[in-house]
Amino acid sequence: LQTTFVLREAESPGASSLLSKIAAGASATLATTGEQGSLEPDSTDVNVEDTTLKGTAYFVQDAQKVDYFLVAAKSGSGVGLYSVPTDADGLSITPDRIVDLTRDQARVSFQDANAELVSEPGTGELVLHNSLPALLTLVAADIAGAAEWQLQATTEYAKVRTQFDRPIGFFQAVKHPIVNMMISIDETRSLVYNAACAYDYDRDDAHRCAYLAKSSASDTASFCSNRATQLHGGI
Fold first, then answer.
1. Is the Cβ–Cβ distance between 69 and 116 less than 8 Å?
2. 174-197 in b/e burial notation, b at 16+ Cβ within 10 A?
3. What's the predicted TM-score (pTM) here?
């Protein structure tokens, strides 16, 4: 999904070609992030000469499930975007070991891998900049959904786990953190809705709204994970 937002902003023959493949059933993911993990447009650690890629993209989601990578790569002319099939020569995928085993994340390395031009060098940063509100909003929405699941799971656990002959949800020391989780999630959800609306209808304010949503989501993720773990007795 994130890839389609970037391709829509590119508005190029290469972008249309990859969008057509996605519409026909192919899958694609972004390989635009450098080792620092930033979503900013110039964060890539991949270099390009003509359409030959060298370097490594980090934190690539669904790397072992997709058919294509949309790669940001730097040259003397600036950042460009390139499409690379996952079975291309000179491409290797190294899975990351992360806490969330439901996620497929990896490092994707390119050693003289041939690519198809999507966005000319020097234009890729603008394309990524324009699509950044959508990318941040999607990440924030994902986090909000995970926090909502934590809230529901913790609430159900508080109804059945007993202590001192009562469900632990009876005690204020448990009730109040659960309510605070709900308040934090509601704040993030509202900011996510606002960011999504701004992306569609108020592009001048889209970046600000997206950053607010992502900032709130990061705080909510930390807080709800902490409370959920504690109220499950450290499990």
1. no
2. beebbeebeebbebbbebbebbbe
3. 0.91
